[in-house]
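FYI - complex with iron/sulfur cluster, inputs then prediction.
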Amino acid sequence: MIMDEKLQHIIEQLACEHALPLESYEYLVAKQSPQAAAALAEHAAAQRRALYGNGVFIRGLIEVSSYCKNDCYYCGLRASNASCERFRLSDEQILACADAGYELGFRTFVLQGGEDAQFSEERVAALIYALKEAHPDCAVTLSLGERPRETYAAWRAAGADRYLLRHETADANYYAQLHPGGMSFERRMECLQWLRDLGFATGAGFMVGAPGQTAAHIAADLKFIETFKPEMCGIGPFIPHHATPYANEPAGTLEQTCYLLSIIRLIHPPILLPATTALGTIAEGGREQGILAGANVVMPNLSPADTRAKYEIYDNKLATGVESAEGLAELDARMQAIGYRIAIDRGDPVTEKPDRED
Ligand code: SF4
């Protein structure tokens, strides 16, 4: 199938101008085809290579708590899932995970968990100090949900560098479909703005193929990324969890996720874009496909082996093999097989275009 002229023009415009009118984003999403995907991926790979060479950044993911006070309809950790076996790591376990990760070559640690009051402002601030004292050359990323501005400020003052808080959707009505009444779109956006104002490298993101999601919803997400310009953006296919209201909904696809990875790379070329575990879960070689589409980050799991399976945000989540920190050599081999390599580096976002040789 030949791409229509309008679609070709939109792709060229995006690659040159890094911005599109909202209706062009919607057209681009609605007209997804293998030809359009290939054209977008070619531009995306060239633009990421110009900024980051062939390096793929690694983040050591430490899942600190599976307790959560929220009840997001799509998530296996939702508070009302009584069948979920919960865990919470001790500070000693978290610091030991980081020590082990440092030895393996990780220079960024991501502390991720549900909204768990036991990970209080004071406790997390002390953890950040301890991590920075033990590994001053490492970046600390937090992904601990919505918190008061003062708490974010305290964590930033303690030395945290980055914060991941998926916006989930840039459409307020759709946000209300995905979340129960106690959660608000306005609050989510306010948190992201606080994080940005406090100087965190800020990560947004959304699920691809979530129940009820339309091309118009995704277009709004792309416009949000264009205007907010997050330093990071985590997107992955929606995968249902058996103990949620969305248990019987179809999963998102590898193809649409890769298509959107390419588009997001072109909207904001310096963005740090992970090929997520969900992408690796949904298809064999999904992570490699994500890298080829424009992603430049992978987040292997550094959590203790016995808790990984319990952090069950969706069904069949991978946590072994190349998804585990111990599988780094294999991950590097897989990256080399597609022309990339693991970079032992903090992996900060570039702000200016450097001259790259590789
Ligand atoms: S998505 Fe996050 S905030 Fe929502 S229930 Fe799951 S862990 Fe909690």
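The beta strands are 55-58, 60-65, 108-113, 139-143, 162-164, 201-208, 232-237, 297-298, 341-343. Residues 34-52 form the longest helix (19 residues).
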